[in-house]
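Here is the promised in-class demo. Please do not try to memorize the tokens; focus on the logic of going from shape to residues.
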């Protein structure tokens, strides 16, 4: 009996030990099967050929045609890889590649299946060749290369290890042309460097739009030279009262450029006619009463409105949109239009109609929250569905395209569950599975694939005050949203995604992302 007990306890100890060992970090395995590598968003196709390519200090990056754009993408790759490897990978024009390990970036017009953002990555033991029709496709492909290397590649200090990638071929292109995130810089203001970090993180998951919510009741965040008090006074505070701030036009231009270098389009939003208290505090003439409103630092919505039957209001809208259009190379100006509860519908409709004409006059495409579909949409208007199915239907009936941002699935400010300290829960609690398990074409009856331009996940910032908090609310849910936007529904299953997300944890750690470690996922541990 004693002997038996001993045997049992030995077995138990061994079992516990092996369980423990399997939970702690394993030494990096040698990659040999490309199909087993974790890539998020999941690519269209992966085939393995059983070997490995090794990145070494003599590896060079070649670009197949001259041109600043290709060079810039090659330098991005070199910059991504250098801190952890310590290698200074030189960028050279193609022609003199050697057989002993090189990376080649090439543009190939004939592979039309790849479209604007697709890429093909061919990995042999001697070479890693990334091809795309367009530069944007090469940039998306670089993100895949980052995920194929060991997670140490994302650390910003030298790592002593070997840098191998399994051989084979990946062909990949996105499901939706618009894959976005939104950051509310109005309720709380975030500095340029925080927004740049957010851009870097969304780029890693192949998103291509960042919508900036630049004005709201609590703050005006972009310098407008013809109406200087908007930013100076209207931007002087934020939720809770302390802080606030705004981007100068130079800073905004720098952000736009930073995003563009990563093939991300900035979509600037000036919310109107509601959500305008900050503007109403800055200029009395924008109020129907002729009296300036008071600065607001609470989190109520729906109490403010521009004076819709005063001509000065349209001069204001014209000047603001004019300056913003000049600073913004992307095609869209977002005019908000949500929750204008203080604007009667008979005033709201003519206001939105005029605001849309002003956007067109400045050469831009109209973007707005789903309520704008109550007005007469101009050609090519994009309507962002967040709450009212009926509005999405009205949008497509008028020939508009829809962006899917259902609050119950994509709102990154919603709490994960009732124990989450940050965030709100008016739409839903959104756990990591809920944010992943939905299909854009099943959200609104009649709104089908051909009506949907893409997906966007907004992060409202009433309760979110700094970068750590942004990361905690956005990650990992934004990763799942990015996969919904990129990957075909036939390749999306929660169980498979859950496993990949868990295995991806060391990359999140290496990127120093303060993510929410949901119990629904078996997070792979890391040193
Ligand atoms: C609704 S979504 C809003 C925002 C709030 C958000 C908070 C939308 C178009 N309007 O003003 O920040 O809820 O979750």
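The designed amino acids, position by position:
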């Amino acid at each position: 009996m004693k002997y038996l007990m001993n045997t049992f306890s030995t077995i138990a100890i061994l079992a516990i030990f092996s369980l423990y060992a399997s939970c702690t970090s394993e030494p990096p395995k040698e990659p040999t099967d490309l199909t087993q590598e974790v890539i998020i968003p999941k690519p269209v196709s992966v085939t393995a050929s059983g070997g490995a390519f090794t990145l070494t200090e003599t590896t060079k990056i070649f670009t197949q045609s001259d041109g600043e754009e290709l060079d810039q993408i090659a330098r991005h790759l070199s910059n991504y890889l250098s801190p952890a490897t310590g290698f200074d990978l030189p960028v050279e024009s193609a022609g003199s590649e050697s057989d002993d390990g090189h990376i080649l970036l090439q543009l190939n017009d004939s592979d039309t299946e790849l479209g604007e953002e697709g890429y093909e990555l061919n990995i042999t033991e001697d070479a890693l060749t990334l091809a795309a029709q367009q530069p944007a496709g090469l940039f998306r492909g670089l993100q895949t290369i980052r995920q194929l290397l060991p997670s140490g590649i994302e650390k910003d200090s030298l790592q002593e290890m070997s840098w191998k990638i399994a051989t084979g071929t990946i062909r990949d292109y996105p499901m939706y042309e618009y894959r976005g995130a939104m950051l509310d810089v109005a309720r709380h203001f975030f500095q340029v460097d925080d927004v740049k970090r957010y851009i870097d993180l969304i780029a890693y998951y192949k998103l291509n739009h960042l919508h900036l919510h630049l004005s709201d009741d609590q703050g005006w965040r972009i310098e407008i030279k013809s109406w200087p008090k908007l930013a100076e006074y209207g931007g002087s505070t934020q939720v809770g009262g302390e802080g606030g701030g705004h981007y100068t036009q130079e800073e905004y231009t720098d952000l736009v450029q930073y995003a563009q270098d990563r093939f991300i389009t900035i979509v600037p939003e000036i919310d109107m006619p509601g959500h305008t208290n900050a503007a109403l505090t800055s200029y009395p003439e924008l109020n129907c009463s002729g009296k300036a409103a008071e600065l607001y630092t609470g989190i109520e919505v729906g109490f403010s409105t521009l004076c819709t039957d005063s001509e000065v209001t349209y001069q204001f809208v014209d000047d603001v949109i004019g300056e913003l259009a000049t600073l913004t190379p992307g095609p869209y100006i977002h005019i908000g239009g949500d929750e204008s509860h203080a604007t009667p519908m008979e005033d709201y409709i003519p206001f939105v109609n005029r605001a849309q004409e002003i956007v067109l006059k400045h050469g831009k495409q109209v973007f707005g929250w789903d309520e704008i579909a109550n007005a007469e949409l101009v050609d090519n208007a994009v309507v962002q569905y967040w709450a009212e199915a009926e509005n999405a239907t009205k949008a497509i009936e008028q020939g508009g395209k829809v962006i899917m941002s259902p609050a119950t699935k994509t709102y990154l400010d919603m709490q994960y569950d009732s124990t989450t300290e940050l965030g709100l829960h008016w739409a839903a609690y959104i756990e990591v599975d809920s944010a992943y398990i939905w299909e854009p074409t099943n959200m609104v009856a009649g709104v089908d694939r051909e009506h949907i331009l893409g997906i966007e996940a907004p992060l409202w910032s009433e309760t979110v005050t700094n970068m750590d908090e942004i990361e905690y609310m956005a990650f990992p849910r934004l990763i799942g949203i990015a996969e919904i936007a990129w990957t075909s529904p036939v390749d999306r299953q929660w169980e498979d995604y859950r496993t990949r997300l868990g295995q991806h944890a060391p990359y999140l750690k290496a990127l120093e992302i303060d993510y929410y470690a949901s119990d629904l996922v078996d997070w792979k541990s890391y040193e």
